[in-house]
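Please check our next protein.
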Amino acid sequence: MMEKNRARDLAYQIRDSERRGAAKVEILQEGEEPEEMVKILGPRPVTLKEGSTQDDKEADEIHTRGAVLYQVSNATGEMKVTRVADGGTFRKEQLISDDCFILDTVGKLYVWKGKKANKEEREQSLATAEKFITLMKYSTKTQVQVMSEGNESPLFKQFFGNWV
């Protein structure tokens, strides 16, 4: 039941934040898939490999392995972008309310703005994320999702191992 609730919440979050409310979320019951969906995705396999907690951990590690967390701060008097951590699961405590952060997940960039971050840090964090797309030679279609502290998306939170 908890997995269904998380999946539903994630679908709504994607609809609201990434699709700006333009997508329609449908909750389906197993075995009641619409014919159109089956045509596109193909029939459901007769047998599915039984998953395990270890499989989940390995998938999470692979997914987060290339991610890098950067801090954008002018606390020293000059604007600095500092690499905080990379290659794995980050901790929520690494996000400091006084600053902004960029989470580079290779396929997508997240800009996190701390509640106490100043205007210059907020502006510079978005500008820096946009520069990353060019510097890292990412696709021009690379998404940049901006969020403020306390309004983090489930997709962002999954990179932080201790986020409840």
